[in-house]
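Page 47, continued from p. 46.
Same chain as before, 88 aa.
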Amino acid sequence: MLHWHLLLKETSHTIAIEVPSCLPARMSTLDLTLGALEVSIILSTILYGISILQVFLYSERGFKDPLWLRSLVSRMTEFLLINRSDVI
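Result:
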């Protein structure tokens, strides 16, 4: 077990906190950054999948929308694909 001692500012008492040895005493900044990066990639992939599913369902249902609206959906999908290719 690791023992950390905290010094209280107002008194001279110390408090011993026991930390299980399976936890690292100090995590590096890189570990924290890579964890945040992994979470953000997973979330962006989920949102990307939802967006592609929406476009697929829109195109499969064959709505009688005006040409400008179908073109807008097509162009936005292209931008989504280009943007996502930078992440992968």
